From TrEMBL:
HAMAP family: UPF0173 (MF_00457)
GO molecular function: hydrolase activity
Lineage: Archaea, Thermoproteota, Thermoprotei, Sulfolobales, Sulfolobaceae
Signal peptide residues on this chain, from the entry's feature table: none
UniProt name for this protein: UPF0173 metal-dependent hydrolase GWK48_04295
All copies of domain Metallo-beta-lactamase, residue ranges: 8-190
Record's keyword terms, sorted: Hydrolase
Claim: Transcription regulation is one of the keywords in the record: no
UniProt keyword Transcription regulation, yes or no: no
Recorded superkingdom: Archaea
Family membership: Belongs to the UPF0173 family.
Amino acid sequence: MPQLRWLGHAAVEITLMGKRIVIDPLIKNNPLSPVKLGYFQGVNIVGVTHDHYDHLGDTVEILNMNKNAVLYTTFDLAMYVANQFKIPESQIIPANIGGYVEHEGIRLALTKAVHSSEHSDPSGIIVSDGNRTIYHAGDTGLFKDMELIGETFRPDYVLLPIGGRFTMDPVQAIKSVEMLKPKKAAIPIHFNTWDMIKVDPQIFIKGVKERGYEAILLQPGQSIEL
């Protein structure tokens, strides 16, 4: 069954076409994580938006647990992971911000994000099976090109950071929803993991609904059917 599950912070699991895709899998050092690393046995694709520790997270361990799983991320970050942690080329899908890459029926694309990183530019990730499209914005501030992301990829669901300080805050994330125009719902992520990103997510939920879009507030571990 196609579904989306929030695993706390920016970690999200998406199941499409029987494939398990996990994005930014911070688990061991995630105080909100409802699962342990063993949960990721059988994962097919690991997407990473950028190299900060709370997003690269436990990627290497998950790839080592699943020798048929692949890492999808920006070229320089992919090469860093491959070389630094001895991940074989067969487990790497290097890409960059641009068009779709298809892997076993799952379509993946990287988008612009306004943030910082050491290896490659930060990014957002698009995941689609041709019928459903999910946009994980990664860590980002508000930027006008979100309009282009909305027009180009026409996301059904958007996962948006709202914690402020390092990313958009709830009010800025509301504005991003107006630009992205999700067909189904907006879901907040990257908030309340630590005090530095503590916010009231109801500000986002209320503001999004006032603008005529659906918003879903998940608790860590909760999932929705796509």
